[in-house]
Fold each of these.
Amino acid sequence: MLPIIVNAIISILALTFIRTFVSGQSLRLVTLSILWGAFSFTLALIIHDTLLTTGFSRSSIQLYSAPVLEELLKALPLFFLYRRFHDRPQLALFVGFVIGLGFAVTESTLYILANPAASWATGLVRSISIHFIHGFGTALVSFVWVRTNANLSRFAAISAAILIHAIFNALTVVLHGSFLVFVAANLGIASILLLAFLLQRYAVPSFLNFSAARRARLAELREHENRNAHRYNKVGDLLYMD
């Protein structure tokens, strides 16, 4: 039980770190994103178990089916809700990351329970590797769907997330021991740092974080100030005319 708690704490710390780059997210949005991540893992698990009964091997699922199915399931709601983030690329990145994190924490919990003898190693290594990779993959898809309407770019984003996932899974097959831990941890840390860079790069000016009504009111006040300034200029010209 303790490895599961530690695994969750590390994920919460990562989430807290990423939240420092994003404004406007609510507890409700975070909760729903985590729940979808957990639900998408459950769906993927059911489908994978079904594939096993039809003759697929675990290795083929790990290398081929899992990257495609899991990345599509995680990003599924974002394909329909991306317009809500059209002026908030940061929020799109954040939501994608939280969904991926919810998926990974649920998956890691199952792995820990299935192998108690290696629970500490499993929980710690996964919490700084595949957790961040899952989060980054979904964040990348969400970000690109918000930034562009080009189908080719969107397909490239999904393909990139699937490829990153597949490469990581392949590394877990061909690498072993401390070298696998080293590579996995570095990939995970690189993923969360790259996500932090994108969040910082696409920071939204504070006035865009207001509601639509507040933005309209701000525009109205600025227009009023411009009209007053124009009137004062006209009065000044009349006063100083020769």
Amino acid sequence: MSTYQVLLFYQFVHVESPIALADELERFCRQRGLRGRIIVAEEGINGTVSGRTADTAAFMDALRADKRFATMPFKVDAADGHVFPRLRVRVRPEIVTFRSDLPVNPARRTGEHLSPAAFHAALEEALVSDDVVVLDGRNDYEYDVGHFRGAIRPDVRTFRDFPAWIREHLDGYQNKRILTYCTGGIRCEKLTGYLLEAGFHDVAQLDGGVVTYAQDPQVRGRLFDGKLYVFDERIVIPVNQEEDTIVGRCFHCGAPTEQFINCRRDACHFQHLVCTDCRARMGGYCSEDCRSLDRVG
């Protein structure tokens, strides 16, 4: 039985004093030995932490004792140990950076929240109907290692690139049913709100994200191909409990792989998928240019 857990959580709610809340959370986490990343802003809280089960349970109890977070859902994964090297608690303008050019407030307006079962049914419809579109609400490299079958791959490296991408690529989709998903749900709160403000009429999101979908005993992760990219030391985790497919392709040779590395050159650190052979052949570099520049340096 695992003695550690990984928590994923967020809540859009007004925070009067983000600095005070951040200080309080940091003190609690350090006292309990929790590690991870927490972002606090006036619009709410967003975080993921790992720790011993008793300590993560105490963390959840402490947050739920605050009326602002009394109903905040937590996604919980078992782990063999810490999945973060350290703790970072920061105050930011947004709890997930979007920089929208339209007024987006997830506390007031987002797309329809679909349960895993309802989302699975909608996915099946999307596979046979041009009137239903599945949009991956994550970054391109997350899509590349795993995604829902038939989903559109966004050509974005960061979440804040979405507004421009939507304007350039989704013109004419306003009257289609748009299904969105992301890792834990937070990005879709802003993404669906933006789509509604931009004139899209029928917008929905996977409630709780792929993490919740993977744990649902009814859908069992079906129709998700590959692995789910996560922002901790695990890098990828399984989703589909019935089919184990590899969709990731080596950046260098195109061979199937689910292994991510950062380019060995400190000035680059480009994260990319790489097979075992190419990792050895390239020495951990993403390109011959980076290898040559390190030799010159």
Amino acid sequence: MRQSENTEQRKASVHCMEREENYSAHPADETEKKQGGIFMRKAVIDMGTNSTRLAIGEMMDGKMQIVYTQVAETRLGEGMGNERVIQPVPLERNVETVKRFAQTAQLLNAYDLRVTATSAVRDAVNQDEVKQVISKAAGVQMEILPGAVEAQLSYLGASGDFRHLNRPLAVLDIGGGSTELVYPVEDGVHGASVNVGAVRLLEHPELRSETAQMLAGLKEASLPENCALIAVGGTNTCLMAMELGLEKYDGKRIHGQIMTKERVDYWCDKLMNMTQQEREQIPGMKAKRADIMPYGVLILQKTMEMLEVPEVIISDKGLVYGLLLSAF
């Protein structure tokens, strides 16, 4: 029995790869704790189909600042198949990651923790079991975000840094299991979500030829003229890291960069015609994302074609940033 348990633990770590960004985070001292309104930290853990993210923010002089982030490639949606069941090994990877992230938040004195889940758990027939074990690991109740709410929060997180463009802003969030698009309409903003994501296309080859047709559900109304498209999520930030040839991920360099449709076409064709091992050697590519990147970029390509936009702005701020903003 002991040997079997060790084998399962080794399997559970296969896909878990982490990236940490520390923005001078430190445990708050007693003076800071007492200041309350001037210094207050909150944390968010979000479980996506491919990645689990931790972000810690604080209010300083009325403005929210990110002090710490960490990303683990936990692939929660691995092997769900048509049965839509989250499998034991991916679930265990996420339980251990959430537990560790919750401990990190506590160490850094993030007093208010929110744990959310998106597409994989939304789709899962065993979502009650997942919610129970993740909530126990985190010490707080996990929330399952509806697709429309996920879209709105991504818009909140991504759009703020680009209001100076004085153009209507649309936000595209490409995930592992779903894709969201939010854009302005007459009475506010409209969000839509479709079950097309990079992991889903990897595991369901029969859907790849239908990608454009499935993405059409995102465009339920016409976008305003001269609308700028902002793209968030691991596919888009990884794509820009490759475009820049970054040996080490640098969110500050990636945030706000522009990629033309021609370059998206170039990368889509290039990635589709490479083996996974060849993709892993590209500077900027995360090894645990190499299998799904062609399909994430395909989603970006087809969305840009549908929206008839010549370029896309890449944002390093998305759903978790929106979750933090909504918490303060």
